[in-house]
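Open question from group meeting: does this chain pack into something compact, or does most of it stay loose? Before anyone orders reagents, we agreed to write out a predicted structure and look at it together. Recording both the input and the output here so the notebook holds the full record.
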Amino acid sequence: MKANVYNTAMETARALIKRLIRLVEEDPRKVYHIAFSGGSTPSLMFDLWANEYKEVTPWDRMRFYWVDERCVPAEDSESNYGTMRRLLLDFIPVPAESVFPIEGTNDPEEEAKRYSDLVCKEVPLWRNLPFFDAVLLGAGEDGHTSSIFPGQEYLLSSPHPYEVSVNPYNGQKRIAMTGCLLFNAKRVIFLLTGKNKVNVVSDILNSGDTGPAAYVAHHAWEVELFMDESADQCAIDK
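Structure tokens returned:
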């Protein structure tokens, strides 16, 4: 696990954008399949990407997928796809056929199956499972990631690429990438900023498998953390 710490959330987001651009530039013959998460921190990254790095990103060799999605319309402010579309996708030269959103208005069980089948068809396989070049994750204060909340750890061992999860705080249904894809990805990258992420960062760096985010960080193939000093207790204690 590699931890990268920056002074501010904005610097952290810029560093992650540059990391992803370098990744796609590693092999100019390759198409890169990347799964994105939602949330306030990625929103900052999407906005910066559209405004500062639009011209230097090889968009034509990127394919966009989603780690998880709330079961809401794309126009809803809670939609992960809708947020990325409004902040980034509408401003960059990416054709519709390179973008693979989860349909939040479909029946959740049917959509989990449809999206699992789509990802299995579009993403190259390794060990008979889709092999993402990068999966970008966040983490909640309670340690959830990919809409896998504490108490739903069974989704980490599911054989189905995507399943329905339920937010235990409000009952909202979501579509979530499960462990079989998270642990098959070439790299998993966590983006964690803000003082409210100190405990989950501490769990990831210093504890055992104390929640879904920590478990994924400890068991995924290659893991990178992008954090600001507010989220990193070690930086605070210095």
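Observations to bring back to the group:
The chain has one domain: 2-145+158-165+183-192+207-212.
Residues 9-25 form the longest helix (17 residues).
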